[in-house]
Amino acid sequence: MNILGCLVDFFCAVNYILMVISYTKGDSFKRMKRFLEIVIGVCIIAGICYWINTFRDDGIQDQAPEIIRPVRTIVLSSGQRTFTRSYFGTVQGSKRADLSFRVAGTLNRILVDKGASVKKGTLLATLDPRDYNTRVAQAKSSLAQAQAQYRNAQADFKRYENLYKQRAIAKSQYDSYKTQLDVSASAVDTAQAQVKSVQDALKDTELRAPFAGVIADRAVENYQDVNAKQTIFSLQDINSLEVVFNIPDNDVLMSPFPDSKSITEVLKAGNRYLKLNARFEAMPDRTFPLILKEFAAQANTSTNTYPVTAIMPPQKGVGILPGMSVTVEAFYEETEEEIDPNKFFVPVTAVMNENNNNYVWQFVNNSAHKVQIKTGSLVNNGFVEIDSDDLKDGDLIITAGVYFLHEGQHIRLMEE
């Protein structure tokens, strides 16, 4: 700034002197004045450029100090870890059956309603038995005729048998009556079987409960024509409830069961390796323990999920009924033998991907240090499994803003 001011002052002084002389000396001095003006202008421009360059250098040298960024961190621990999954499930009775008639007919009595409690053997509904009574009468009539024919054939055979022994008739006649006796005996057997069949059909016009339970649903109305095997009632035993839910194949692949344990061994061990709890939306503050019962080894082809059945022990004072929706929480806790010292769980926000490689930022001596990792399973609380030989228990991992850091950047722990 001083150099620029001096040049301006110098130019003004010279310009003033030349202007005074130009009034006294004529045109030659005017040309000299013009020349000097050009020279001094060039000097001023050069001075301005010099000043700007000097100011820029001073600005770089005098720039503000680096801002140390605060970061949040998590402490790595390879100790005992827990895994939690949540699935949608449905309550059902431990015993359940869709009840139907074995024969077709017209309903003429429905003796129970939905929600009714029934005992084993209770009559639930009946079909109009008139057609079946007629069939029974016809079958009995046919049986009586067959029995009469058998008695006649038996009397004829005995008479001709005596004649054959006395050699009074030929053997062919004897064989003929013997055949008639056998045929009539077979006809009696067939008629008896027919009578039993229609009598059973008549009994099947009555629908009875095969076990004690609750009528969960009724699919028909009275006086309706129904077919054989058509569902009439849904019966469930609610004294012992079960919860059915489905596990996706991805969760099965990263299931926390020990590698040395088969599904059968896990079932035998009960809740040692897997703890299940049921939670109902209407009672968010309560959980109900479940016991693993069945784990399907074959996936449902339409949903690509594996059905799981768990037993819900009786709950006093809680009206849990079949068909209710429930959230199943599958909880697993590793044993000391299963812990891998190189595996940890960190928030997904701590993982950075660059060039198809995954990294985390480690807090080391108040600076950021990038560490390459391998990622594993995700858990539903926003954490991901990582694996690295360069990490150990107690290391601090930065959990947010990972894409705004650079190697060696000065950082500090954020005050909570």
What's the SSE blueprint?
Layout: H1 2-25, H2 27-61, E1 69-71, E2 73-75, E3 82-100, E4 105-110, E5 117-118, E6 123-127, H3 130-165, H4 171-203, E7 206-208, E8 213-218, E9 225-226, E10 231-248, H5 249-253, H6 263-268, E11 275-280, E12 283-295, E13 305-312, E14 325-333, E15 343-347, E16 352-354, E17 357-364, E18 367-379, E19 383-387, E20 396-398, E21 411-413
Parallel strand pairs: 1-21
Antiparallel strand pairs: 2-20, 3-10, 3-14, 4-6, 4-9, 5-8, 6-7, 8-10, 10-13, 11-12, 11-14, 12-13, 15-19, 16-17, 17-18, 18-19
Number of domains: 4
Unreliably modeled segments:
none
Number of helices: 6
H-E string: HHEEEEEEHHEEEEHHEEEEEEEEEEE
How much helical structure, as a percent, in the residues?
Answer: 25-40%
The CATH top-level class label of the largest domain: Mainly Beta
Number of strands: 21
CATH topology of the largest domain: Elongation Factor Tu (Ef-tu), domain 3
> Judging by the overall fold, what is the CATH architecture of the largest domain?
Beta Barrel
Report the radius of gyration as a whole number of Å: 50 Å
Give me the side-by-side strand order of the main sheet.
3-10-13-12-11-14
How large a portion of the residues is in β-strands, by DSSP E? 25-35%
Say which CATH homologous superfamily of the largest domain is assigned: Efflux pump adaptor protein, beta barrel domain
Sheet of most strands = 6 strands, antiparallel, barrel
Describe the structure.
By secondary structure, the protein is of the alpha+beta class. The protein folds into four domains: 2-61; 71-79 and 338-413, conserved putative lor/sdh protein from methanococcus maripaludis s2 fold (Beta Barrel); 85-90 and 236-336, Efflux pump adaptor protein, beta barrel domain (Elongation Factor Tu (Ef-tu), domain 3), CATH 2.40.30.170; 129-204, Helix Hairpins, CATH 1.10.287. It is built from six helices and 21 strands. It has helices at 2-25, 27-61, 130-165, 171-203, 249-253, 263-268, and strands at 69-71, 73-75, 82-100, 105-110, 117-118, 123-127, 206-208, 213-218, 225-226, 231-248, 275-280, 283-295, 305-312, 325-333, 343-347, 352-354, 357-364, 367-379, 383-387, 396-398, 411-413. The strands form five sheets. Strands 3-10-13-12-11-14 form a six-stranded antiparallel barrel. It is rod-shaped, with a radius of gyration of 50 Å. The relative contact order is 0.15.
